[in-house]
Amino acid sequence: MKRNVYFLVILVFSLFSSITLAQGKRILILGDSLSAGYGIEVEQSWPVLLEQRLSDNHPNFILKNVSISGQTSVEGLSQVDSLLKTHQPSLLVLELGANDGLRGLSISEMKNNLAGIIQTANDQNIEVLLLGMRIPTNYGRRYTQMFHNVYLQLAEEYNTHFIPFMLEPILVETQKDQKDSVKKALIQSDGLHPTAKAQPMIMEHIWKTLNPIIQEF
């Protein structure tokens, strides 16, 4: 009888430890429409594809995507502390700023907001993967360069994990083949959001940086 009780205690302890370990290895995506599956089926979006990749390669990691279309860095900053405490991730994937740029909002305020998000995560010992963005050149060379520089500066100042341009594979592909058919296949009619066909390319691009980070946990 005592032996059975002993094994039961060990089993319960093991299960509890496994659950605790899994809960301690969460990835939280905080982004905007580029990560919320805008204009496509959510199941086709890169975060869902990433979740499937994690399931195959790192089943002890849980992905939570709290991205909202239209989200700005201001809103992200106001929500981040609550989100981190609720989901308790080991890693925050930060994809914000595009809407700030498209609305022509203050570059310095955007930088301060993103810095505040990163610092909040750092204060809770949460790793950050910052996804850099670019905006269309019709916003002017100076503004577009200042916008992109924000991500470069933040990555250096906070020594955070960093992908300089989240949509790099799409840019490379459309520059390589400038046919309208290629652009239409990868970019939605609004000229801003990636199509369903582009989502696996984005996921693979992010995975190249994300996978080594995960392996360090």
UniProtKB/TrEMBL annotation:
Q: Kindly name one Pfam family recorded for this protein.
A: Lipase_GDSL_2
By its UniProt entry, which Gene3D superfamilies does this protein fall under?
A: SGNH hydrolase
Q: PANTHER family this protein is in? A: THIOESTERASE 1/PROTEASE 1/LYSOPHOSPHOLIPASE L1, THIOESTERASE 1_PROTEASE 1_LYSOPHOSPHOLIPASE L1
Residues annotated as transmembrane: none
**SGNH hydrolase-type esterase domain location, by residue?**
29-197
Protein name as it appears in the record = Arylesterase
Against InterPro entries, the record matches this protein to: Ester_Hydrolysis_Enzymes, Lipase_GDSL_AS, SGNH_hydro, SGNH_hydro_sf
CDD domains per UniProt? Lysophospholipase_L1_like
Tell me which SUPFAM superfamilies the record gives. Answer: SGNH hydrolase (SSF52266)
